[in-house]
Write a structure and sequence with these properties.
Layout (H helix, E strand, L loop, with lengths): L11 E7 L8 E10 L2 E11 L8 H12 L7 H7 L7 E3 L2 E3 L2 H20 L1
Antiparallel strand pairs: 1-2, 2-3, 4-5
């Protein structure tokens, strides 16, 4: 059984504000990361949006993604799982077409992870 990593009292991270045309309010994604044996890994994700139509799935997504990311080993498959989500309202964000808000979250997580890798190099 894989044991989840404990959360230290303080983590470094970044918050992304995503202004998407299909939402009445901005979507905020806070990604906190942790260093383990000289490598930096995403540890938890907080997603927030004051658009009431999105309220039901946002806390669940934050908790589930964070739970997966806290597991040892390569857990970056979750980025692709989110990217592959489709909705009936695809949209463009910064000139790129996304199939869902979940997809945009997956690409944001992947981008943050790539940023962390460049800091290591």
């Amino acid at each position: 059984m894989v044991k989840p990593l404990d959360r230290p009292p303080r983590l470094d991270g970044a918050t992304y504000e995503l202004k998407v045309d299909t939402l009445t309010e901005s979507l905020f994604i806070t990604i906190n990361h942790i260093e383990i044996e000289g490598e930096t890994h995403i540890h938890e994700v907080f997603i927030n949006c004051f658009d009431g139509t999105q309220f039901t799935w946002i806390p669940v997504t934050s908790r589930l993604v964070s739970a997966v990311l806290r597991r040892e080993g390569d857990n970056t498959f979750i980025f692709k799982e989110l990217q592959d989500m489709f909705s009936i309202d695809p949209f463009f964000y910064k000139g790129v077409k996304y199939n869902s808000i979940s997809s945009l979250i997956g690409y944001t997580l992947e981008g943050h992870n790539e940023f962390l890798k460049t800091r290591r190099a």
